[in-house]
Amino acid sequence: MAVVRYALYRAYEADRVEASNAMMALLAGAQLASHLLKLTEGSSRLLPEVFPSVAHIRRFNLTSEAANEILSSAETHLGAMGVPYALAIHEDYLKSALSLLERGGVVRRGTAERSKLATQHRLIAEASGTSFDVTSLAQLETLRHMRNCLVHAGGRASSALVSQVATWPDGTEAAWSKLSASSPAHLAVGDPVEFAHGEMILALAVTKVLDREVNGMLQGCLPRDLWCDILVDELRDSNRTSPRAPDALRKARGIARHHYGPLGLTEAELRSALNRAS
Questions:
Q1: pTM above 0.85, yes or no
Q2: Is the pLDDT of residue 42 over 90?
Q3: I need a labelling partner for 68 at 20 to 30 A (CA). Which of 11, 48, 149, 278 fits?
């Protein structure tokens, strides 16, 4: 299904791209630094002496050899930071989707505020009468349990994680392994839970898939009047155009065509929304 790129969705996309770029920049930066330090390999001088103009270098007060050992394992640490980051952005987007469902009278008031990542997909699926891709949802739930193990269990596999993996639908492990060099499929309770570049890529990929599915679900269950009201909100807040302005309808048509195309909003619907907002 084509995506309706309303203002909040575009803001989410920008956040996700920024997070992805930041993660990849840090990963590449660690590798670049490791490559550079090979030039000073064997030196007994500390990094602040070798690179005195580098900001914060005194916090990395090591020899090149010692620093290289840390940088070579940076992927694991970046994965442990990057996966929760990606899930946090996803959770915030799902909360905004639930807020729209509240506004449309599809779910009860307060649903969004009370929701957590563990319940948000179910709430949205039930509200829309549809379901998420089972493989993507299983991957997301596994990443969520892995994050919880990192935060609450000292990085050791919990029984909840092991149980989640045991319920994977067919094809989930193959899809996981396609992006990640390791798989949690054989973890036992108490085993170390590892993150790396593959888990970062997986988190970014699976949240993108699920967020697009949420977009399609919203298209199917939010009232058309509400979509028009959202568009008029964008006209007023982002385009700084009053609904009463002489060119408001023309600008609304442009926004509808450019960002809300899949909905096929009519001029009559847009005119009514402008009148409601006036």
A1: yes
A2: no
A3: 149
